């Protein structure tokens, strides 16, 4: 192992902060600042700083476990792998391939996500694969695809934010979820720009805002429409831009004009003067941005809600222009890359569609299989979990903990328990792993090499800095071994290399010509550069990224999926034709859409959306709204961060945030246990009383299992396009807990 600092990236969120790892005498590593990485310039939140604690945690799994006599007991790797292969093979024989489910995670590297999608489709032959990234940003992805023809979290680097004039941050609490990113907004204000935060709670992020709008949860679609109404009424539409660069304005305009500001005030609780202030602040500067996160996205109308915010950008000419645009600012460590390379139910690598014949042909050729042998699209994440024990009899799960993170979690826990067979790969015995028939202990970020793609679309190299504990293997090893056991007679294991760079070379070829084209990216480049933005085709004649020609070339690649000429750009040995010819290397594409959008005609699409209610409005029995989210010291289901003493000291358990008026009605004091009850269950946690939340709303963080599990309460009503569950709003009642 190296004895000097190893530059790498944080294992947690989609910011993918850079860090150096230095070796310690005891064989561990310490996190040291890495100021050269432009996203965080050395700054880290507590989760990143303490990440090595999980590597050496006393609860780290170091031996496979198999269930015997009702208990999980240590086993050899061969015993455990044999049990998994037998379980999956039995299901496939008795019930057909689609009775085998596969569930991945947004934390898996690109190489693992790619291999998992390939494993499901050519080893198991199942269509039933999806991943927990569906729960994070799928609505923004769907809205971006509809509007721009391409989904990349941010179509510009974060470093553009301080140079714009105004940012509307919708449903994002960056101060808790991605603290190092706050610097971009501080610099924005120092440069004279303004920040508008839209959130039902007065969060730490909202406290930084020049204007904070606090709509009722689930009404930000109406808020965006009300702002667009005022844009039209005040004559602030950029008519020339709309004419030249968009399609569908008249329908979107008509929908917005039906949302009078006074009507919007009644729906949202945001006053008309506040609405006018927001429009003025957004429209007066030359440049402006709208950035959404889980607030608008985790709704049963998340795609339409994000579409309404994109409409505001399009009508004012603030998309596909320098220092202006729409972006999505959230996600897991590899939420972006994880959805580009094939672990999503409807996708093949390179952001290709599974139901596109040309895409199937291209990927099948790379995989060496008949295109007709590839299954079609499967179920979305919640639908897949809901089918466990009925249509789906066995499940292979990697990098996810749905017992804590899925909506209607008690029901999902029962569905998991009803499986014939469950295998889980994880680093600790998560709440889901504890239910498994076989648990495999796998390597973590600092113990392995692989790539991730952050929310800017910047592909990054995580490097191995430490030797994994004895008894632990990589997920890539697991897939290789299972392919050998389940398809050894066909030699399928040869298609599942254990070397991540070898997997990436295949991924490059599979993505070539797709929307998310990585064919011009190599490990060698990533080791030398601070990430490469996709699309990065392997084109010998590509011009510099920020020139107009380069944007055209890149967007042609993004829009022109399955162009055979581009498919030819990557050769069998993984080198690109540009490299083979000694030609120029494509520099990547930090900024998208300047000259054209990635739609067939190059124009962006307005979304003709109207306000509609959330799936479960409050009523007499359940009169309060519950919204859920995160706290700074814990991450997602807490499977890793709940194992870190420093983080637990800062955030030891769940709580219910509620307004003093609601607390007074209950007779509850700060710290008293209160019960939150929805149609799906009951959760109990201490009250945290604050005027920073609306009196009609309570908030719970979702990181904990057990009695205070917020997802016991949440509503799995799905967005019709993205299939995102409605984590952000459901009807509950709140009760004091006596004795
Ligand atoms: Fe890691 Fe995200 Fe914290 Fe950065 S902000 S250190 S990527 S968890």
UniProtKB/TrEMBL annotation:
One of its GO terms (cellular component) is membrane. InterPro entries: Asp_de-COase-like_dom_sf, MoPterin_dinucl-bd_dom, Mopterin_OxRdtase, Mopterin_OxRdtase_4Fe-4S_dom, Prok_molybdopt-oxidoreductase. Residues 537-593 are annotated as: Disordered. Keywords: 4Fe-4S, Iron, Iron-sulfur, Metal-binding. The keyword 4Fe-4S applies. GO terms for molecular function: 4 iron, 4 sulfur cluster binding; metal ion binding; molybdopterin cofactor binding; NADH dehydrogenase activity. One of its GO terms (biological process) is respiratory electron transport chain. Residues 3-59 form the 4Fe-4S Mo/W bis-MGD-type domain. It holds the Pfam family Molydop_binding. Gene3D superfamilies: 2.40.40.20, 3.40.50.740, ADC-like domains, Dimethylsulfoxide Reductase, domain 2. This is Nitrite reductase. It comes from Streptomyces regalis.
């Amino acid at each position: 192992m190296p004895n000097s600092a190893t530059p790498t990236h944080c294992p947690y969120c989609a910011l993918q902060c850079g860090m150096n790892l230095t070796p310690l005498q005891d064989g561990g590593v310490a996190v040291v600042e890495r100021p050269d990485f432009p996203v965080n310039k050395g700054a880290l939140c507590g989760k990143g700083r303490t990440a090595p604690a999980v590597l050496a945690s006393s609860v780290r799994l170091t031996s496979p476990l198999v269930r015997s006599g009702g208990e999980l007991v240590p086993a050899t790797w061969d015993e455990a792998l044999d049990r998994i292969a037998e379980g999956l093979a039995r299901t496939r024989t008795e019930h057909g391939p689609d009775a085998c489910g596969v569930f991945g995670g947004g934390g898996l590297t690109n190489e693992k996500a790619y291999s998992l999608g390939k494993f499901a489709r050519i080893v198991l032959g199942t269509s039933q694969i999806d991943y927990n990234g569906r729960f994070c940003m799928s609505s923004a992805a769907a809205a971006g695809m509809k509007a721009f023809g391409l989904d990349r979290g941010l179509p510009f680097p974060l470093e553009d934010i301080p140079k714009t004039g105004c940012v509307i941050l919708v449903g994002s609490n960056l101060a808790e979820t991605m603290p190092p990113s706050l610097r971009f907004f501080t610099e924005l204000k120092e440069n004279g720009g303004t920040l508008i935060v839209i959130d039902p709670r007065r969060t730490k992020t909202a406290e930084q805002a020049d204007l904070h709008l606090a709509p009722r949860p689930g009404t930000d679609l109406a808020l965006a429409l009300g702002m667009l109404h005022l844009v039209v009424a005040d004559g602030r539409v950029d008519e020339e831009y709309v004419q030249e660069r968009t399609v569908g304005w008249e329908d979107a305009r008509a929908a917005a004009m039906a949302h009078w500001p006074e009507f919007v005030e009644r729906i949202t609780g945001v006053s008309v003067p506040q609405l006018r202030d927001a429009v003025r602040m957004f429209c007066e500067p030359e440049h402006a941005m709208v950035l959404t996160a889980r607030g608008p996205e985790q709704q049963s109308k998340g795609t339409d809600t994000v579409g309404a915010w994109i409409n505001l950008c399009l009508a004012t000419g603030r998309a596909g222009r320098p220092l202006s645009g729409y972006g999505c600012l959230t996600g897991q460590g590899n939420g972006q890359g994880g959805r580009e390379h094939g672990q999503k139910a409807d996708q093949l690598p390179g952001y290709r569609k599974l139901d596109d014949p040309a895409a199937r042909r291209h990927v099948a050729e790379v995989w060496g299989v008949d295109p007709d042998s590839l299954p079609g699209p499967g179920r979305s994440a919640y639908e897949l979990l809901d089918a466990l024990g009925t249509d789906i009899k066995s499940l292979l799960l990697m990098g996810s903990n749905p017992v804590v993170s899925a909506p209607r979690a008690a029901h999902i826990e029962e569905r998991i328990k009803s499986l014939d067979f469950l295998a889980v790969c994880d680093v600790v015995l998560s709440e889901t792993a504890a239910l498994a028939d076989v648990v495999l202990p796998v390597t973590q970020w600092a113990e392995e090499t692989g790539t991730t793609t952050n929310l800017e679309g910047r592909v990054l190299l995580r490097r191995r800095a430490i030797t994994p504990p004895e008894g632990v293997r990589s997920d890539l090893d697991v897939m290789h071994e299972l392919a050998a056991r389940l398809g050894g007679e066909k030699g399928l294991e040869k298609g599942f290399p254990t070397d991540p760079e070898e997997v990436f070379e295949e991924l490059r070829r599979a993505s070539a010509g797709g929307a998310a084209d990585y064919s011009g990216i190599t490990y060698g480049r990533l080791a030398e550069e601070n990430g490469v933005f996709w699309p990065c085709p392997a084109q010998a004649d590509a011009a510099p990224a920020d020139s107009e020609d380069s944007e055209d070339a890149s967007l042609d690649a993004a829009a022109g999926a399955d162009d055979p000429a581009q498919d030819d750009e990557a050769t069998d040995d993984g080198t690109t034709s540009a490299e083979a010819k000694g030609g120029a290397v494509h520099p990547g594409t930090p900024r998208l859409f300047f000259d054209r959008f990635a739609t067939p005609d190059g124009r962006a699409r307005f979304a003709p959306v109207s306000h509609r209610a959330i799936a479960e409005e409050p009523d007499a029995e359940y009169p309060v709204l519950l919204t859920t989210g995160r706290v700074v010291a814990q991450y997602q289901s807490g499977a890793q961060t709940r194992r870190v003493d420093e983080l637990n000291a800062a955030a030891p358990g769940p709580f219910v945030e509620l307004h003093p008026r609601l607390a007074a009605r209950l007779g509850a004091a700060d710290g008293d246990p209160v019960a939150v009850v929805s149609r799906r269950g009951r959760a109990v946690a201490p009250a945290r009383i604050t005027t920073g939340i609306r009196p009609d709303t309570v908030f719970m963080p979702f990181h904990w299992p057990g009695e205070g599990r917020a997802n016991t309460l949440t509503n799995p009503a799905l967005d019709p396009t993205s299939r995102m569950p409605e984590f952000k709003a459901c009807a509950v009642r709140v009760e004091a807990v006596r004795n």
